[in-house]
Design a protein that fits this description.
The protein has one domain: 2-Layer Sandwich (Alpha-Beta Plaits). It contains seven helices and four strands; from the N terminus they run βααβααβααβα. Helix 3 crosses helix 4. The chain starts with a strand and ends in a 7-residue tail after the last helix. Bound molecules: adenosine-3',5'-cyclic-monophosphate (CMP). Adenosine-3',5'-cyclic-monophosphate binds next to helix 4 and strand 4.
Length: 139
């Protein structure tokens, strides 16, 4: 069942470059409501668990060490058709292929340091949100 919720992380590159405010502004202006939010840092172990679905990919090691290299902002976002609309807002994984006006086109540096994560399905949005937030931390 569609939950109308998605999960995002503002990644270490975007945090380091002071893009948190700009990215949140784009998210709010696109009509997403913030259900939960946390400024935190993943251990390598936690990043490995979060990205376990990519374990067999050649970039898994790089991804895990990158995502645990600095603080991130994790959030659950709500909007009708949240998963698909958020993927449209962030643009293609590779920022050189992202459309103009998307978050990754505006703020991302590379395919690994691509500014934001967005869930790829309702099921993963639920799993990823549960990874970070208890029921009491959602409003
Ligand atoms: P994300 O949406 O967080 O989900 C998986 C991440 O893996 C993706 O964003 C990219 O940052 C990263 N990724 C995907 N393909 C590559 C690649 N070829 N090299 C390095 N990182 C990648």
């Amino acid at each position: 069942m569609a939950t109308n919720r998605t999960f995002t992380m503002i990644k270490p590159d975007a945090v380091e470059n002071n893009y948190i405010g700009g990215i949140l502004k784009m998210i709010n202006e696109a009509g997403f409501r913030i259900v939960a939010m946390k400024y935190t840092k993943l251990s390598a172990e936690a990043a490995g668990t979060f990205y376990e679905v990519h374990k067999e990919r050649p970039f898994y090691g790089e991804l895990v060490s990158y995502m645990s290299s600095g603080p991130i902002v994790a959030a659950i976002l709500e909007k009708e058709n949240a998963v698909a609309d958020f993927r449209t807002l962030i643009g293609a994984t590779d920022p050189t292929k992202a459309d103009e006006g998307t978050i990754r086109k505006t703020y991302a540096k590379s395919i690994a340091a691509n500014a934001v994560h967005g869930s790829d399905s309702d099921e993963n949005a639920q799993i990823e949100g549960d990874f970070y937030f208890s029921k009491l931390e959602r409003y």
